[in-house]
Amino acid sequence: MKIDPNKKTIVVLSGAGVSAESGINTFRDAGGLWEGHQVMEVASPQGFSKNPALVLDFYNQRRRQLKEVKPNRGHEIIAELEAFYNVIVVTQNVDDLHERAGSSRVMHLHGELKKVRSTGREDLVLDWEKDCNLGDKCPEGHQLRPHIVWFGEAVPMLGLAQGAVIEADIVIIIGTSLQVYPAAGLIGFAPLTAKVFYIDPNPATNWELENVKNLQLIKEPASTGMERVKSALVG
Fold this sequence. Notes:
It is built from eight helices and eleven strands.
């Protein structure tokens, strides 16, 4: 990721709330379900081993949904800030709305819907726009699976994300309750001098945030919250 040394760096920590305004349901509803399924049925290695067809179909539906939604104003403003700052987006979202809005530096902590990977070699990742079904195999002959970080699996991008936050001049937390680790711990790597904006209409308590000196809480949805942040940073 090429960084302009003459610009300050913004790291955006984004979660499901920023995509909710585009019509993508948040990861889990109040009952702990994800699109009507128990989360462990569709987001764990055990669930995939037990019923791979169900899991593949679940992510096929999520992938198809991407064709029906578009970035919202929150995504767009994040991308627009690149004209003034180095902007690195560290997202828990598996959709591609940040990229479609124009953001050029995006790290997906939890994987990407539009990619699949080999069940025999986790570093063999393929771009994938269509459905992925039983019998679809990688070049080495292994069944393909969604390129999603499931519960119990390592988060390969975590080290890079921590490194980005360490170098941040400004951190924007948007659309995430900062309750799920390891992503929730990223704010703890921000420099003490970093300005932190936390955008959430119903902010949750997070002990990591209690140590942030330069915190500005904005109790707004993603789009209107980002309008306020842009005004503060750009004018």
